[in-house]
Amino acid sequence: MPKILIVDDSNMLRDMVKYALNEGGYPDVVEAVDGVDGLEKAKSAVFDLIVTDINMPNMNGFDLIVELRKLPTYAKTPILTLTTEKNDDMKAKGKAVGATGWIVKPFVPEQLLKAVGIVLSR
Amino acid sequence: MAVFDINKYRQMFLEEAEDIFETIDTILLEAEESGDMDNETVNSLFRSVHTLKGNSASVELAMFAALAHELEFFMDRLRNGELAFEESMAELLIEGVDTLKQILEMELSGELEESFFHTTKMSLLQKIESFSEDAQEMVELVILEEEKDDFGLLLPTDDDKGFGPISGEYSEKPEEMPESMEEYFGLFDDEAPQSELPPFEDVFGLFDDLEEITMKEAKEEMFGFFDELEDHSISVATVSSSAEESDEDHFGFFMEIAPQLKPKASLPEKRSEPNPKEAHPEAAVDESKVAKKFKADTTSNSIRVDLSKIDGLMNNIGELVIAHSMLSQYIYTMEDQKTKSDLSERLELIDRHIRELQESVMSVRMVPMETVFSKFPKVIRDTAKKLDKKIDFRSFGESVEIDKAMIEGLTDPLMHIVRNGLDHGIESPERRRKAGKPETGTLMMSAEQANGQMIIKIQDDGGGINLAKVTAKALENGVIDEHQAYSMSDEEKAMLIFAPGLSTADAVTDISGRGVGMDVVMSNIKKLGGIVKVDTEEGYGSTFTIALPLTLAILDGLNIRVGTEQFILPLSAIIESIKPEEEMIKQIGDTQSEVLMLRNEFIPVVRLHTIFNVEYEHQKLSDGLLIVVRSAAQKIALFVDEFMNQQQFVIKPLDRNFRNARGIGGATVRGDGTIGLIIDTMNILDKNY
User: Fold this and answer.
1) Contact call for B55 and A94, based on CB within 8 A
2) Rounded to an integer, what distance in angstroms lies between the CA atom of residue B628 and that of residue B258?
3) What's the count of helices (H) and strands (E) in chain B, helices before strands?
4) Most buried residue, B9, B172, B179, B463, by CB count within 10 Å?
5) Do residues B455 and B397 lie in contact, with contact meaning Cβ atoms separated by under 8 Å?
6) In this predicted model, which residue has the larger pLDDT, B307 or B533?
7) With an 8 Å Cβ cutoff, are B300 and A19 in contact?
């Protein structure tokens, strides 16, 4: 059963992602409130997928991915970014930091699950 | 299939939005005051609005999201240096945020008409535009044709005009329009072919497997792989042109899943995903500083818990306290001395743990007063502006903690006192100048804990309360009679402002002065188990002092006996108790009214047995005891037969039917399982007027 880490500073969005994942058959979900918290939690356990927001206080999603990719455990782990915009800048930046994919907010559970299914099976 | 419970998430959104709005208000007020906004502040502001936009779109608040989007765009230009901050921008932004709040409220209640939204938004955009011209931006208000619309697609109607972005650049490149219907998903993988965009089949082949739908050249995916993208700065024009090659409609895929999720949230390319580090590397480092400086958006290791859960926990502890005292009462009746003392010893241990548990839960309920204070700067600024007055607002004791359950009940009365102080208390700059005072009036709010009570003071250096005017008004309204007017102390006269229907304002303003309010302040504070006092000096200002219990859940009380009945008197109400000498008791006139003369002060005596209509032991006051208790403006001496013990009680509300019972404010369950009634001293006094 894949273990998934959700990183988002919004309670609401964390809850939405968690709900969608739980409903989609991923009960093992851990939440973190920002990049710093996310990095800490990522180090304390091994996750099979990380879903992170980009726009966060303390440490943003891109910086988190940079830090995660430095860790051998997370060199290849799929990382999905939650984004409001999907412009060149986001794509260039996401690619540069080594993120796996993006999913646009707002999303419906099915879309998220599909994206998760895809990145997990890669 | 799983669907989001939109109501639940709207509620969550609202809670978060409230916090975010507070952060934004704080930032903007500070910027308005200092006339400056540094990079980190701009970033923080941008991030806040960005979150509002993104999250509101997730809970289907389309119009709010569209408006937030416009503000975000403006802030983005501030952030990336396209616009330089000017002092007057703060005011515009404050207005913009106020509009946002208004739209949110209306959209939530379903009262938001599209035409109203359109007008509101346009008027805001026009103001924003004026700054753009200064910055030689090519911004022209573009009322976009429907297909050009890049954000307002969430709207249920076809009339999306007015939702267009104000970006001139955007309108100049209509050929880029398909971009707005771009992918919702992509891969960032480095191993992907770098030179060109990988065939779309590869990406959508994956979806194909799941849904057996050919997703070739899809123009809008909700999800994508980054490695399907070109190495750097993907040209979305390429994406669109390739998409144009085959115009098959492949969106159906996601449309089927979520027809409401048309490309509603796509934005002009220009507006980049917030990444402060890239825009201002030096600012990003200090991001955490901003968060601390204003209000930490979220704190690691903290969770949000519904207050009702904590109330439930508190209630459980209350039951535990009751069960504990039942047990201790039972042990007391035991015959075997050894077992009795052994059990008592162990029971003491449990007692200590219960107390600790109680304290822990109490501390969970406590939040800093900052939560209350932070609402004021914005209100004061707005009110002062409206009244053309200059106000310097200061607050002290932000870190003093208060029961979260009290905040709601406390904010309204405080707000009222403040508004009243601004409206009637602090004078206009000219009047202040004439009176030899500084033009800027000062309003201070402070909180401190003293003697197990929370003391909140609101002090202004205005003109004070015109006691003669208040007294005359009270006479006119029949609140007092001439005799009372003559014999009242200044303090009592000042307290008249809390009488219902009393307004001395010469002109009724829309800030305050309708004559409703100060009496509501009094009743709200009383509901919280507190008292209000006002000290005023004409020409020098007024001070409102509010004393509140620290919590609403537990009460320190004194058990008193009247005849065979026992009642609980809250310790916070007690001033002193005495065994009166005969000569201290005076009769007033030919009535049965008795007063206690204590250190040259006449205090009316209330016989509890008369009020509660119970048997009594002592008839003569000098045989029993008198407890002097306080109310808002008055002292009163309660006649009781005996003091019992002092104890903590878990307050249980009375059933609705009994709420009007004179002199009774609540109930508790005693150790022996019987019900104990808690005396409400305010209530006794009120009926005595």
Assistant:
1) no
2) 69
3) 24, 20
4) B179
5) no
6) B533
7) no
Summarize pLDDT for B654-685 with one digit per residue, the tens. 777 776 777 887 888 776 777 889 888 776 76
Helix axis angle, B404-420 to B518-527, nearest 10°: 160
Q: How far apart are CA B523 and CA B530, in angstroms?
A: 9
Closest to A98 (Cβ–Cβ): which among B53, B55, B188?
B188
**Rounded to an integer, what distance in angstroms lies between the CA atom of residue B472 and that of residue B148?**
67
Does the pLDDT at position B292 exceed 70? no
The answer to whether A19 and A107 have CB atoms below 8 angstroms apart is no
Nearest to A92 among B59, B232, B300 (CB): B232
B362 pLDDT higher than 50: yes
* Residue appearing with tokens 């964390």: A14
- For residues B340 and B356, give the distance between their C-alpha atoms in angstroms, rounded to a whole number: 24
Nearest to A104 among B265, B298, B302 (CB): B265
Residue type, B300: S
- Contact criterion met (CB < 8 Å) for A108 and B274: no
ipTM of this complex: 0.90
Which CATH entry fits the domain spanning B370-549: 3.40.630.30, 3.40.50.150, 3.30.565.10, 3.40.50.1100?
3.30.565.10
Looking at domain B554-688, which of 3.40.50.1260, 2.130.10.10, 2.40.50.180, 1.50.10.10 is its CATH number?
2.40.50.180
Written as six digits, the tokens of A67 are: 């830090």
Residues constituting chain B: 689
Rounded to the nearest angstrom, the minimum Cα separation between A117 and chain B is 10
Domains identified in chain A and CATH numbers:
4-121 (3.40.50.2300)
**Better pLDDT: B355 or B140:** B355
How far apart (Å, rounded) are the C-alpha atoms in residues B562 and B644? 11
The closest CB to that of B265, out of A54, A88, A106, belongs to A106
Residue range A60-77, pLDDT digits in tens:
999 999 999 999 999 989
Contact B19/B297 with Cβ under 8 angstroms? yes
Nearest Cα of chain A lies from the Cα of B359 at a distance, in angstroms, of: 28
Rg (C-alpha) for chain B, rounded Å, is: 33
**Which residues in chain A have Cβ-Cβ distances shorter than 8 Å to B277?**
60, 62-63
CATH number for the region B1-182+277-297 comes to 1.20.120.160
Whether residue A111 and residue B258 make contact (CB cut-off 8 A), yes or no, is: yes
Q: Both tokens of residue B458?
A: 């609101």
Q: What pairs with residue B456 in β-bridges?
A: B447, B546
Write the DSSP string, B393-461. Answer: EEEE-TT-EEEHHHHHHHHHHHHHHHHHIIIIISPPHHHHHHTT--SSEEEEEEEEEETTEEEEEEEE-
Cα three-residue angle B485-B486-B492, rounded to 5 degrees: 55
Higher-confidence position of B552 and B215: B552
Q: Which residues contact B686 (CB under 8 A, 6 or more apart)?
A: B631
Which of B395-399, B540-544, B658-662 shows the lowest mean pLDDT across its residues? Answer: B658-662
pLDDT digits (tens, 9 = 90+) for B10-49: 988 998 998 899 889 888 888 888 888 888 888 888 889 9
Degrees to nearest 5, angle at CA B213 with B232 and A79: 40
Residues 501 to 520 of B: which have CB under 8 A from any A CB? none
Distances from the Cα of B156 to the Cα of B31, B114, B259, angstroms = 37, 10, 12
Q: Tokens at residue B415, please?
A: 């707000």
Where in chain B are the domains? 1-182+277-297, 185-262, 307-368, 370-549, 554-688
Reduce the DSSP state of residue B144 to 3 states and report it: coil
